Amino acid sequence: MSTQTSIVVVEDEEHLAQGLIFNLEAEGYRVHHEADGEAALQWLLAGTEPVDAIILDVMLPSRDGFSIVQELRAAQNYVPVLMLTARGRPEDILQGFDAGVDDYLNKPFDLSILLARLKGLLRRMHWHRAGTPAEEKLEPEPQIPSDSFTFANRTIDFAALELRAPGKTIHLTLMEADLLRHLVQHAGRIVSRKEILEQVWRVHEDTDTRAIDNFIVRLRRYLEDNPSQPVHLLTVRGVGYRFLPDGAGPQS
Ligand code: CA
Fold first, then answer.
1. Environment of ion ligand 1 (residues, CB < 5 A)
2. Please, what are the domains in the chain?
3. Which of 2, 9, 93, 215 is the 20 to 30 Å CA partner of 66?
């Protein structure tokens, strides 16, 4: 295990990038900087150096942050991404999550908050990977179930960030793993959209709930034999969702 955590900063505003680099290095991180979207993607895809996390601006020359994350995930690169958005529009945040972003921060931000979010991201990765909470506690951690959860011929392996189903293995993003863990921990009861946003993803905004529904549709493709007739991840109209490991009759 490398002793120095490696962070990539993709940011085209020079003064902001220099401030980030200075402070991240002061915190003991190794930092690589890219200012151009396409160049950043190519550098990341080349895999020249190990990367522990990416701080990624949305608006960049030649290629935006959403498309960088999409391309990385399509190439099965799952390094955690903290996205910096100047827009702060909930649809954009959810679009980022849908693209495979793991956390976001609105510009302008306090440096202390960025560092806390980055630590949170690295800790969540460690948490899923190790199956145990990291020693550092910035906020209370929920109870942690065992490293894996098996139901209906499927196994969610939180340590490997994988969902294994007959004939296929699906890689889970941190967002997906966090939500699945929450659903497993609260199996059988209704989980509201507000709870998902505030407790699972820490998004404290009024958000277009259709964006969450899109995320759930994707999860159903992993969890259900017939995603259009779900029996495990049910929609509770107007409220949220309910996860039933043992299944239920098809929703009408
Ligand atoms: Ca920018």
1. 12, 57, 59
2. 6-130 (3.40.50.2300), 148-243 (1.10.10.10)
3. 2
